[in-house]
Amino acid sequence: MMRRLIWNLLAGLLFASFMPPLLELTTFESVIPFLPLLLTPLLLSHVRRSWFLLGSLLALLVSFYLILIPGEAPWNLFREIAGDINRVINGELPGRPAFAFSIGLISFLIGYLARRTFPNRGFVFGLALGVIGFIAYCDTWTDYSGEQFIIYPIVLALFLLYATEVSERPMASYVRPFSALLIIGATVVAAVQSPVITATWQDSWYDWTDGFESEGTSSSQIQKVGYGNNDEQLGGPFQMDDREVFQVESEGSRYWRVETKDVYTGKGWVLSKSEPEIDSRGFFSHFGDDVKKREERATFELSRELPFVPYNGDNVRLSVDKQRQNLLIDPENQKVSYLDDAERQQNYQIQYTYPLFTEELLQTDEPITLSEMEQDRYLQLPDTLPNRVRDLAEEIVADEDSPWDKAKAIESYFEQENFEYNTEEVAVPEENQDYVDQFLFETKLGYCDNFSTSATVLLRAVGLPARWVKGFTGGESDVIGAAVTSYTVRNKNAHSWVEVYIEGPGWVPLEPTVSFDGAGQYTIDQETNNETEQANPQRDTETDTETATPERPQENLLDEEQTTTAAQTEQQSFPIWPVVGVIVGLVFLYLFRKPLTRTAAILFFRNQLHRPEGFKRMYRFLLRRLDKQGFHYKDGRTLTELAHEVDGYYETYAMRPLTDAYERMVYGGESLSVDKKREYFENIIRRIEG
After folding, report:
1. pTM (2 decimals)?
2. 178/232 same-domain check
3. Region 518-522: what's the mean pLDDT?
4. 457 and 410 in one domain?
5. What is the pLDDT of residue 459?
6. Is residue 532 a contact partner of residue 199, using CB atoms and an 8 Å limit?
7. Is 199 among the domain residues?
8. Residue numbers of the domain that contains 119
9. What CA–CA distance (Å, rounded) separates 609 from 206?
10. Is 632 exposed, middle or buried (0-12, 13-18, 19+ CB in 10 A)?
11. pLDDT for the residue 548
12. 570 domain residue, yes or no
């Protein structure tokens, strides 16, 4: 009885392990109200059926009370349930009662299955794989991170397997508990103390199949295209990711900003400081007073809640159901985010001012009036920057006079010099190598991070304040009206570009990445015959790569702690597959050791039973296998007594005739036929090694 109670408790705790990730993704706050309905069916799985059913029902009602109406009168529970049923009948989505009932139903079915199958290792494997698989699914495809928690169901599953093994056998030696504790301890130590290799891809089931081999510095761990937040180490290849981030209805294709970075380290970007403040609008003074602007609106429908607000232009205001929302505004990196996670929205509208520059205003040659502190921020370059980068910058702008012409010369330099857009053979700089220097003089291929970072550094090298910008391009369009178009923005539309400061116009976006036309960054007003014609200032391209070309690699769209290229260290060529094959082979042999032993024994003794020595060898083999299962024939029992105990435990009639045949052969007399020996042997060995 005690063994069964321990087994039931371990099974209940393992089953309950699937709740923490589920609760983190719902509005429920604690697992404690769910514990009665989660644990009771398994704890009562060994009692009489009537007590099992009654206990499970009472546990369901207790959990319903604690989940739905804690502290209220108990009879209000039925009113709550009836209200949810009426909502479903009226065509509405089910609420909290339906969710709790579904969890209770699953728990009851698990308990009933345990009642019918105990003790059974198949049940344990199925339960463990289901719980661990669910946690892995939540970790892979949702915001939940199961890196720390997943060790608990693994340890519980190991304990439950051991408890199942003990329950299946009539006796147990001291070797078994020591072996179990050794395996469980080794698993915990390996999980906790092993050196961690940060995964490059965090959200795709196929991540681990790529990037095992590399050559030199041109190949590192493959990343997934998407938006991340840590840009301290740039470089490395990535793969396409078509998952949707948001849909937006706007008055045209727009680049959607998220934030800027100002300090170039030689490897990537960091923010010099951050001082967010609460406000109802994001006013960042991107543009000068003389710049024409127009008010625009955009309606966002997010596939998942984002920790930031994508926007365009200036003076951003966010509304939900026509109610203005307070936001967390960071003027240092022009980032708009929520006050806390609970206020994140998936459907909202923003208003902003969109710039309409003129050629005359852009061609100004006025001296820069940024403060000394701002100039230091946006002209910063590391002391380790190679001189040939500065020399190249001066060479590019040598024939240009105005700041705008210099900026455009740097923007178009990469296309004129036939730099290549490439996502697969992108290098990671060596330890003492500069990221921009490597791109400009060695590889000359890369994606938006390479182009935008290099353009920012070149602009600063010639004295033009510049900053690095991250966000999304416009996405795929679907016209739904004369003035409003719906766009689908995906992970592959994550992008980076550069903004240069021109006295008068202010911060003007540039698109240095080859094959991108920059549509939606800003508009130039061209007056013709007293009518205003709006033209896109960016270069034309042969193909529309905004929907066909992935833009920049990142990790997890929603994880504030993710890195841009997590673990960008150069990989060494290593024959990983033989190691994986050996490990899989060893695991297979361990998991299926009993069926393999059974099959090998049957095949080995099948053709030996016609000889007396072969039959003796077979019978002694059976005694050794039974001894390992706890049937010790040297404990003062006769072989006949042992045979009766074995047949009684396994509910068969096989060991007794084999023992009788063995004794007759030893002491003289008639024996069984070869066919009967084979039949009885195969019968009992299948039970022993089942």
Report:
1. 0.51
2. no
3. 67
4. yes
5. 94
6. no
7. no
8. 2-193
9. 51
10. middle
11. 44
12. no
